[in-house]
Each structure stands twice: as structure tokens, then as C-alpha cells.
Amino acid sequence: MNRPVPTQSDSPPRRQPKSTFWRSLTVALGGAATVLRTERNAQIESLIALIAVALGLWLGISRSEWAVIFTLIALVLGLEMVNTAIEAAVDLAHPALHPLAKKAKDSAAGAVVVAAIASVAVGLVIFLPRLWLVVSNLL
Fold first, then answer.
1. CATH number of 40-138
2. Helix/strand/coil (H, E, C) string of 19-87?
3. Any idea where the domains of the chain sit in the sequence?
4. Which residues contact 131 (CB under 8 A, 6 or more apart)?
5. Catalytic (active-site) positions
6. pTM, to two decimals
7. pLDDT tens digits, residue range 50-89?
8. Helix, strand, coil % (nearest 5) of the chain?
9. CA angle 73-79-85, nearest 5°?
10. How many other CB atoms are there within 10 angstroms of residue 42's CB atom?
């Protein structure tokens, strides 16, 4: 007795290989590295983040302050990456100037600026009193 050959719709769904997570992680980290390597603003923001970490180590900030600093660093750099993705997608979809393309790109850039300004304000709240103590002890 001949059995019918199962068609693609009759066969059970194929399981994804277990390494999908690791491949996705590798691709995502590669995307982050590309942004950090190619985008001037991301490089500047990374330098400021390194300065904030160095200041935090030097001034001995608390664990909760570290949590805030690292959260804001991730927020600013993450928004910079989203901004880069939006700009690239808009340029691909509509290379010519268009008011809606400008609005999308400017809004994404504005999100980065808002986070950066908030980060500077928080940095001043955390670091300024400690820096003031260091400077006043030197004088």
C-alpha cells in the first residue's frame, strides 16, 4: 500500500536551532558596534559615558547612583542606535527630501537630545557635590 508523501503543509513545523539566541545576540552586538564605530555622536556619547564611569570610580558613588548612571548611559546610547536605524530606514524608503521624512528623523534625534540633557542634569546632581568637596579640600 502506497502512503501519500506528506506535503510541506502536512509536515510538522521545523524546530529552530538552539543557537538562534546566540546568533541573534551576535548580530545585535555587531549592529551596536557598527553604530559606535561609524556615528560621531555615538562616539562622543561613549566618551562622555567613560568619563562618567571614571568620575564615579574616583568619587566613590553609591550602588544606587551607579544604577542610575548605567541606566542613563544605556538609554542615551540605545536611543542613539534607534535614531541611526530610523534615519537609515527613512533614507532608504524616501531618499528625496520630504516633510514627513524630516519629521521622523528630527523626532528621533530629539529623543536622544532629551535623554542626553536629562543625563547631564543627573550627572550634575550626583557628581557636583562630590567634586565641590574635592576642590574645597584642595583650597
1. 1.10.287.3610
2. CHHHHHHHHHHHHHHHHHHHCHHHHHHHHHHHHHHHHHHHHCCCHHHHHHHHHHHHHHHHHHHHHHHHH
3. 40-138
4. 55, 59
5. 80
6. 0.82
7. 999 999 999 999 999 999 999 999 999 999 999 999 999 9
8. 80, 0, 20
9. 140
10. 21
